[in-house]
Amino acid sequence: MGGSGGNPLLPSNRENRNEQLTGLTRQFKLCLISLGSVIFFIVIAQGLGLGLGLGLGLKHRGPNLSPAQSSTFHVAENDDSRRLLEPWRLDTSEYILDTTTWDINAAPTTRVYNFTLSEIEGAPDGVVRKMFVINGQFPGPLIRANRGDRVIVNVTNHLPEPTTLHWHGMFQNGTNWMDGTAGITQCPIPPGRTFLYNFTIDNQYGTFWYHAHYSTQYLDGLFGPLIVHAPEEAHFRESYDHDQVVIIQDWYHNMSSALLPGYLASGNENREPVPDNGLMQGTNFFNCSSLAVNSGYSCFDNSTRAVISVQKQKRHRIRLINAGAFAAFHFSVDNHTLSVIEADATMVEPLDVHRLEIAVAQRYSVILTANQEETNYWIRADMNTLCFDAKNPVLIPGMKGILAYTDSKEDPKDEKSIDWSDARNVMCQDLNSTSLIPAVQEPAPPADVFYSLQFSFGIREYALDRAYVNGTTWKMSDIPTLNKVVPELRAGNDTFNITGVTPSYDIPNQYIIGIPQSQVVDVLVTNFDEGAHPFHLHGHQFWVMATSWEQYFPWHTYGSLNTTNPVRRDTVTVDAYGWALIRFRSDNPGMWAFHCHVAWHLEAGLMMQFQTRNDLMKDWTLPSDVLELCSA
Ligand code: C2O
């Protein structure tokens, strides 16, 4: 599948869409919007009297096309005017976490954020497209808090479709209904409505992120970093002077809803749309002339790479987040060793690496010491294209950013900036989990119960290529499973208080495992698909007991697993035709999604739920504002 992905002429079949444009009108509308934005751009540019010479810079690619027809536009711009004219671009200097005035010991407080979600036209890498953004900007704003704080996010949905926001990695202990998982913990927020997310951050700190959890929506721009500090951080801060977030992601030049139908179509053999580009801090270079003559895209020939500034001899903590849809990245910085100190909000003993693999939704903190000659160096985030099923001619998989010791934003010089010679892992695997040793030791207790989950893709009862977990493919329910379960438990209905696989309460397409009391749970996840899948468990961190690229778990090893101090995280990659054994304590009441975080796979149904602590859930009453979302 090519960069324009899917079949642009197929209508979107996404459920619950307000907007039911046919594919054709959608395309046409997009063209008009794109054209409109170029004209708008010119008008504004001239209005500002910037003397940009746009008449010369605007090139039509393609022979004698009338404006209403598709053609690729190139618009040359200089850097500064571009910044002036991009109100939709977040100034990512807010991702620099000041360590001097922020008080990690402050008394608990309430942090209030107002998020207005809207649809805009933007061009993060120069290619104009429709995007979904928060407060008019991309990427999303930083949420920053201390452990113990209450976070209130007032979400106003001005999108043309429903939405939710999920706080990836937050335990939400006692507030499962704030988890933001459409169809599981809430009905989505309808267009035009507001909803207040309100939760307290207990017992955790580190690097998290938030993102929309409705269909594949987050990859259209709805995500941002969520950083939680704690007094314990003082100790770790002794080993770094600066702290900042760096978000990397893959990027498509189309709305995800336009790419989905082509992906799910039967006969497509689970070929995920291949990204068109990568972004670092929401920006990257793109070569407009690589677009086909009649691609239909407008493209500004002035895209820029991310610049991360460092100070000579200072130690910089980089909190890396892969907020992408599909691609795993190899991350490295030329000439600089990286010291890994955090994985998914678990502080680990420093581990020196030249390159690290990071799957979708994972986070790592690395310390980079700026001890090299004062010039610029490449930051490399290479997409692992070996994990893609197809090729995209416009994709340059080796995304680069610039590590700058000086004010210069110039490209690093070949003779100064030297890539590490270490081989890239070709297998789409996680950074070896056994080399990650949590700094705070927590032995894995013996398991009380064991569940096996097996997944694969197939065309079974639907005329679409869907994912199946133990034979069930997930589809968003109109009634969130939480809303169904809580009142029945309250009423003492034992049908809803089940140990093991539940009858899914007559809600179609749900696979639910009930663990009524607090227990230690082993889950063996076996992958019968040829791709690697990063699995995320909501509301918990799990111990990664073991992973393998071999198809079957060697049962003779079950009694001798290393339980001393295995790494704890919330997202683990299950290797192609391999397995992962995870262990968690089901001490957090609620309905918790467990799913592959590749946005395409999630939408194809690669998700199940754990229903935990009925003994506590039976006393719950869901807040009326949460319930009300379902009656809209
Ligand atoms: Cu990042 Cu279901 O979540």
Would you mind describing this structure in some detail?
This protein is mainly β. The protein has a domain at 449-631: Sandwich (Immunoglobulin-like). 12% of the residues lie in helices and 32% in strands. The chain contains 9 helices and 34 strands. Strands 12-11-15-20-17-18 form a 6-stranded mixed sheet, with no helix packed on it. Strands 24-23-27-32-29-30 form a 6-stranded mixed sheet, with no helix packed on it. The protein has a 6-stranded mixed sheet with strand order 25-26-34-33-28-31. A hairpin with a 7-residue loop joins strand 23 and strand 24 (466-469). The radius of gyration is 24 Å and the shape is globular. The two termini are 38 Å apart. Residues 1-71 have low confidence and may be disordered. It binds CU-O-CU linkage (C2O). The site of CU-O-CU linkage has 11 residues, from strand 7 and strand 33. CU-O-CU linkage is lined by residues 166, 168, 181, 211, 213, 361, 536, 538, 593, 595, 597.
Return Rg in Å.
Answer: 24 Å
CATH architecture of one domain: Sandwich
Summed over residues and divided by their number, the pLDDT gives a mean of 88
What's the tally of helices?
A: 9
Any idea what the shape is?
globular
**Intertermini distance:** 38 Å
Strand content: 25-35%
Helix content: 10-25%
Largest sheet: number of strands, sense, barrel closure: 6 strands, mixed
Instruction: Say what oligomer this is.
Output: single chain
What is the count of β-strands? 34
Structural class: mainly beta
* Broad CATH class of one domain: Mainly Beta
Which ligands, by name, code or SMILES, are bound?
A: CU-O-CU linkage
Enumerate the spans where pLDDT stays under 50 for 5 or more consecutive residues.
1-71
Query: Which sequence of strands runs across the widest sheet?
Result: 12-11-15-20-17-18
CATH topology of one domain: Immunoglobulin-like
